[in-house]
Each structure stands twice: as C-alpha cells, then as structure tokens.
Amino acid sequence: MTAFIIHNMAPIMFVALVVFLLLGYPAAFSLGAVGLLFAIIGIELGQFSPDFLQALPERVYGVMSNDTLLAIPFFTFMGLVLERSGMAEDLLETVGQLFGTVRGGLAYAVIFVGALLAATTGVVAASVISMGLISLPIMLRYGYDRRVASGVIAASGTLAQIIPPSLVLIVMADQLGRSVGDMYEGAFIPGLVLAALYASYVFLISMLFPKAAPGLPVEAVGFREPDGSRGLLSLAVLTVASGFFGWYVMRNAGYRGADYVVLTMFVGIIFAFSVAVLNWIAGRFTGFRFLSQIAQQTTFVMVPPLFLIFLVLGTIFIGVATPTEGGAMGAMGALILGMIKRRLTWDLVRQAIESTAKLSAFVVFILIGARVFSLTFYGVSGHIWVEELLTSLPGGQMGFLIFVNVLVFLLAFFLDFFELAFIIVPLLGPAADKLGIDLIWFGIILAVNMQTSFMHPPFGFALFYLRSVAPKESYLDRVTGKRMEPVTTGQIYWGAVPFVVIQLIMVALVITFPAMVMHYKGAASTVDPTTIQIDVPQLDLPPLNFDPPKFN
C-alpha cells in the first residue's frame, strides 16, 4: 500500500482535492488543506522535501504584491456602481424601443445591452440581475416564451466573462504568465462573434416560432415624431456622419492600426454627442430640432457607456494605461456617471465597496489556497505527471485541445470559473506551451469553455442569479393589469440549454479559426529568435606585419 501511494502521490492528491470539493467544502480551504495534508504525508514517506514549505511565505507575499490582480477590485467596483446607477435600465428601455415591432426585438435589445454592459462592467452577476429585473417582466408582458426569455437574459449576462474587461481574463492571464492587455485584445472578436451567434439563434426562433419571440405592439412603441414617424432615418444619418467624421479626422492625422480604430470611435462619439447637445439646445430655445426624438435619446443613452469603454479598453489597447490603471479610471468614471445621473448616494457606494471587498477576498483566499496546493503538487512531481499525461495524448495539439476542453466542460458542472482558473489552468498551461500552443489563444479557448460554468444546470451561477429575481408566484402586471404566471426553475434550466450548445460551437470556432485571437500579435515579428543564424562572410585580408619599423 505504501509503495502504491509513493508511486501515485500526484494523482491521489488530485483525486483527494476533487473529493473535498464534491463534499461541499469551500475551494480555498480545500486547496490549502489538501496541500498541507499531502505535504505531511510526503515528508513521512520521503517523497516531499520540507524545504519546499520554506517558499510558502514568499508565494503568499507574491499574491499580495501582484499588481495585475489589483484590476479585479477596480473593475468589480466599477460594474457594481454602474449597475446601481440605472445605466442598464436606460439602455434596455431605449434599445428595446429602437427595435420596435421587429420580431424578437426585446431579445435583440437584451443581447446588445448585455454585450455593452459586459464591456463596461465585466461582472456577470451585475449584468444578469439588472436585465432580469428590468427586461424579464417586459418580455413576459408581451408574450415571450419563458424559456426563450430566461435563456437570452442568462446567456447575455455571461458575455461579461469573455468580453473585456472580464475578471476571468485577468486571472487567466496571471495564471498563464501572459499580458492582460494581450488577453483582452485576443478576446474582443470572439466575444462579439458569440453575441452575434446569440442574436442568430433569436432570429431563428423568431422565424420558426413567431409567438415565442414577438415584436412590441404598435401602441407600445414610443419616441414618435409629430407626424407619427419613428425618426429612424435621422438616427441612421447621425451614425454614418459620426463614423465618417471620426474616420476623416484620424485618417488626416496619420493614425494607423489599433490606435486608428480606437481613436476613430472616440472622435465619432464626441461628434455624435456634440450634435445631440446642439439639437437639445436648439429645441429648448427655438423649438426647432434637426434630430428625431429617438436619435437624441439613443445618443444620450449610448454615449456614457461608450465613453467609459474607451476610457478603460481604449487606453489599454493603445498602450496609454495598464489594465490596473484602466480599471482605476473606469471606477472613477463610474462614480462620475453616477453623480451626473444624480443617483450616486453614500448607501450605493457603501454597498458597492462591501461587495467588492467580499469578491476580492474570495479571489485572494482561493489564490493562496491554490499556491499551497501547487507547491506540494510540484514537490511530489505532479507537474511532470500532468505534462507527460497530456503531451502523450494521440492527435498532437488537436488531440490535446479536444481532451482539455471536454475535461473543462465536465468540471464546469461542479466548479465555477475562479476555481477552474486557479486549479486547472496552472496544470494545463505548461503542457500547452510544450506542445507549441500560443497561450493567449489557449486562454481564450478555455475562457469561452469556462463560460458554460455559469449556464450549466443545475449549478450555473447565472441561472441562480436569474432565479433570484424571476417571479416565483403569479402576479398582476402593473401595465396591463393581467395576472401573469410565474417562471419555473425548469423553464430557466431548459432555456439555458441551447445557449450552452452555442458556447460549445464558439469553442470549436475559436479552435478552427485561431486568427480571431491571433490578431493581438499585430505586426509583431513571428520569427523564432532561436532559429536565427548569422553567417559572417570570410574576407581575404593582407597578412599582418608585426616587425618593428626601421628608421634610417
């Protein structure tokens, strides 16, 4: 028995951790307890050197002094302040009106706002709860199938995990030893493609089952002009003019590349906002408006979050700020937006600070526990066992990616994304690197896969968040006065299933088309410096004469 334990210390240690987690013990304490327990066993059996434990204080201090992880409380605070300042409510109301009588219009609005909130908050809980409270009653009021409505809200909220400034991408970059900025750039296109796949599913449902996702009735569509028109042409003209103005200014300024795209968007936002302000001033003092009501309302609602996106992601992408500095600016920007909307109160700030402190402590404790576990795991040569196991899989890189994604998908039924990132990713990263897999690409693949951990019945956190705000009993709708049936847990779970399938399709797309992620390298050289050989040409030089000069 002792010989068996000695030869299989690493796999036994990993299985023990899984057992502790399945028994319901907190991840941080499970990691630390298993690490210390097997350190003692390893010392008694002569398989673990006590010298490894001397590195533990330094590892814990390394967690505390990690500047990258400072971005987590900043982005969390920013998201919570924005969620409580009413920005989501304004966006959902305006964008929902924008789609009007289009089939599935409210669902499209939820997906669009979900992507926008993801790019400003980065917090799944804030997005799901906000949209569940605001949009679910409206979708039920106008006859949406409860499974479709629940699935769209939960899935759109999880976009905050893959669209920057995602918290999981910060952790992923830290665990893989890569730049957070590169991870953000690599994730941007897959995040938008995933949102487009969600919208495609809604389009398919609205075509095949029109009653499952109807459009708003005509009488429910507001922001009409005096002649009864919607005024959408005015909005389209303003959008095109803003884009052209930004392109013209940046083109003449000589900008190219990522700077060009980001700054073009920023200049376009300023142009649109300036036009809307002039229109508002003209309407107040002269009674003449050159923009429609929907165009002005959409501009005033869209500009603050878009400006915040530039303040955070734009400054990171163009290299002006680090992710931590971008998070700090985003937190300050969220406070300023809250003050402008006159919704910033001391109680709101206190709640946001408390929630941020709890989440940050949760992350730090898991990371400390993971450091204890990994120290012992490395001490018993567990990393060699994992690396040999994974690199010997048939199929090379593709076989490795398929096996890893199946493993992560199954583990996501029981573990959340933080636990997966701290426990599994450090074990998989070295094997992926040895196989020549780009770690940014690998990290994005895992992030999309781990996104399913929020949607897995029965333990998906997004489903729990939605369940907490969805009506559990029948109620009277405040607008129509009709008695509405409750949303059952089964309907929420079944509504999530198609979106889990879509997320798996997205994993396959990222693997099949790595260029979606690899654009982060830009124009950087792809030459491996270890393969460079410098050939110095041989020159025929005259022989050197070392004889001393002769003087007459």
State the gist of this model:
Helices cover 68% and strands 1% of the residues. With 552 residues, it is mainly α.
Overall description:
The protein is mostly helical and 552 residues long. It has a domain of 100 residues. 68% of the residues lie in helices and 1% in strands. The protein contains 24 helices and two strands. A two-stranded antiparallel ribbon has the order 1-2. Strand 1 and strand 2 form a beta hairpin. Helix 4 packs antiparallel against helix 16. The protein is globular. The N and C termini lie far apart (96 Å).
Enumerate the strands of the largest sheet in spatial order, edge to edge or round the barrel. 1-2
Q: Uncertain segments of ≥5 residues (pLDDT<50)? A: 523-546
Strand content: under 5%
Radius of gyration: 28 Å
Specify the biggest β-sheet: 2 strands, antiparallel
H/E topology pattern: HHHHHHHHHHHHHHHHHHHHHHEEHH
The averaged pLDDT comes out at 80
Which percent range fits the helix content?
55-70%
SSE class:
mainly alpha
> Roughly how many Å apart are the termini?
96 Å
Overall number of strands: 2
Q: Please give the count of helices.
A: 24
What would the principal axes of the Cα set say about the shape?
globular
Helix/strand layout:
Blueprint: H1 2-7, H2 9-22, H3 27-45, H4 56-64, H5 71-84, H6 87-99, H7 105-118, H8 124-141, H9 146-157, H10 167-176, H11 180-208, H12 232-253, H13 257-285, H14 293-317, H15 323-340, H16 346-379, H17 382-391, H18 396-411, H19 417-423, H20 425-434, H21 439-450, H22 461-469, E1 475-476, E2 483-484, H23 489-512, H24 515-518
Antiparallel strand pairs: 1-2
Helix pairs in contact: 2-3, 3-16, 4-16, 5-15, 5-16, 6-7, 6-8, 6-14, 7-8, 7-9, 7-11, 8-9, 8-22, 9-22, 9-23, 10-11, 10-19, 10-21, 11-21, 11-23, 12-13, 12-14, 13-14, 14-15, 16-19, 17-20, 18-21, 20-21, 21-23
